[in-house]
Amino acid sequence: MSDKRFNRRNFLKIMGAAGVATGAGVMMPKEVLLARAEKSGKGRQRYEVKPGELDDYYGFWSGGHSGEIRIIGVPSMREIKRIPVFNWDVGTGWGITNESKKLLRGRNFGDTHHVHGSYKNGTYDGKWLFVNDKLNNRVARIRIDYMEVDAIVDVPNIQGAHGLFPQRYPKTEWVVLNSEFQTPVPNDASNKKAFLNPQEYYGMHTIIDAERMSIVCQVMVDENCDLAATDYKGKYSMCTSYNIEKGVTISEMLASDYDYLIIFHWGRIRDALRKGKYKRVNGVKVIDGRKGHSDITLRIPVPKNPHGVNISPDGRYAVCCGKVSPTVTVVDLEKVDLAFEGKIKPEDCIVAQPYIGLGPLHTTFDGRGNAITSVFIDSTNVKWNIAKAIEAEKKGPEEKKKNPHIVDVLDIHYQVGHIMATMAETKEADGKWLISLNKVSKDRFLNAGPFKVENDQLVDISGEKLRLVHDSPAYIEPHDCIMVRRDIIEPKVKHRHEMFEHPLAVTKNSVERKGNKVIIRMTANAPVFGLQEVRVKKGDKVTLIVTNHDEIIDLTNGVAISNYNINFVIAPFQTKSVTFTADKPGVFWIYCTNFCHALHLEMRMRLIVEA
Ligand code: RUQ
Ligand code: CA
Q1: What is the tally of structural domains in the chain?
Q2: Assuming Cys at both sites, which of 258, 294, 439, 547 could form a disulfide with 301, CB separation 3.0 to 4.6 Å?
Q3: Cβ count within 10 A of residue 197
Q4: Which domain holds residue 580?
């Protein structure tokens, strides 16, 4: 707990008890006035979004082990939509249609942590989102015009695919992905020596081609690679590592007093690729980035088991959260150039190490020189000034002890993980709103059973003080989010699919048989399907392709086949297909699930399966 926070509290309490603040004619201290103003909400930005009004920001939330992404309107916190990614989604048919199965390749579970947008010149370009799957070690790309997944790349040689970050400058050509769990390389039990010896397990910093969604290379290190960041110049990417010990138990992972922020030099990576300085493991180019083996990596010692690394919007500083240490470490990226050239030591890149609180995890920025750090154990958001922290570091320990960098401390409810401010991961950080993604909601919502939801809190950061304005329950289990200005996203999002982008788009209804394979091509146009009945034989392998021809925005049709466990929806001008074996003879109604018309209930047809 910072001294300042303690003092402020006591101060207000004492003032209240003495009746000083309410006494007529008594000059009210600024702090009390401020507290009152904040309570009334006067002078601060409005967070209510009235019926019929639209939000200012698109929030993209990772859904954690629900495997999805959610679109949340900010500041209203209204959930607008869910984008299925690594999960089954019965509502849309994700995981059931042939189109989604082709991307998922049989793996319908996932663990999404970090969703980030594609960039141009240090800010979002509104083209793509990228998200990791920690469970099955993949990265998915979402095209923003349709808000749907269009590519998934499987990443070999890694486990615990965790930190993910796209290139910020000049534009997103690469996306980096860290592997949090060290493993043998290759990890196929062929290498008997490495198999059981954790000292021969490695972490990987994987580079993915954003356009092709293929793997450019992997940089292998001894350490584990946790959170990721890229700089604003297209020169470096980085990872925090909390397991430089190569431990396999908690106590082993905590043995060292420091771990690393590892910086990866992109120019030298390109050089190694050009010169063929890599070996292939499972088809991927693996570059040796181990300490003592390579000039590609730089290790800056950071206390202790650090977690998040975030770059200030001016591009100057990397802020690394101490987790087990109550401090954050501020690294000057301009000095990193010198360290790579060997002119200064890696630790000389550190320009401040201010006290924050117990369990600092992630940092975000208001674009006005302040950082806000999530503090897990204290359950706080701590706002602090970067320049003041650096200045105090220069002045020495006496000045540091006064914590002059702390601007405000906000209690949250409870145990915050990620924290994110609007546009904060871009050079256009605007300091309007902040989301505190709290892991524990306890008493904040109606009790709905022993398993409790999370609490995503909305905080107004437009003023000097942090002001909590809204509690928002969140189902399993948002990890991270970004909030993107509406004017960047909205013009890119389409109302209809381009019909012929799908190679199988149906314009004419037909049933085609080849041996025991039956292909049904059908249109849907509320309130009728293009066919009234289809006859197949028991054992036929049936492919049903449906195109929604409705021109009206928002006219989604559903296709459900009774007792066949098939259910999907098709948006205007979209095509989807399913393939199944007609293994049950009888009459099965195919019906529209998505209310589409006054005669929606009549929108149905027969699938007749002959014995
Ligand atoms: S990290 S636990 Cu985003 Cu804090 Cu995955
Ligand atoms: Ca450690």
Answers
A1: 1
A2: 258
A3: 12
A4: 499-610
